[in-house]
Amino acid sequence: MGAGKTTVGPLVADRLGTAFADADARVEARVGTSVAELWAQHGEETFRAHEAAAVAELVAPGGPGVVAVGGGALGRPSTRALLDRRAHVVWLDADPDLLLARLEAAG
């Protein structure tokens, strides 16, 4: 959270001439609530299950060329294996102080 996926992702997609999608946005569309609310009400495992389904949809043939997923998605073995088979994973790294500043600025 705060590493810049939703900023960098669309820029990369534009440069590559392809579409961009965000896995969290897909989860929110699937469940009709925010990721934060889903997590608070149903816990991490429920969120990760929805995230895994969203990632599977997004990396399927014909899906967008650039997909943003949170780092936690890689902690789920099935999601990691899917990404290993169907995607090139780029890890955005940011200094913890910068992440904190971004999160505080976002509210």
UniProtKB/TrEMBL annotation:
GO CC, any one term? cytosol
- What Pfam families does the record point to? SKI (PF01202)
Q: Can you name one GO molecular function term for this protein?
A: ATP binding
Q: Which PROSITE patterns match?
A: SHIKIMATE_KINASE
Q: Which domain of life is it from?
A: Bacteria
Which InterPro entries is this protein grouped with? P-loop_NTPase, Shikimate/glucono_kinase, Shikimate_kinase_CS
Keyword field contains Cell wall biogenesis/degradation: no
Q: Name one GO biological process term.
A: amino acid biosynthetic process
Q: Which UniProt keywords apply?
A: Amino-acid biosynthesis, Aromatic amino acid biosynthesis, ATP-binding, Kinase, Nucleotide-binding, Transferase
* Name of the featured protein: Shikimate kinase
Lineage, top ranks:
Bacteria, Bacillati, Actinomycetota, Thermoleophilia, environmental samples
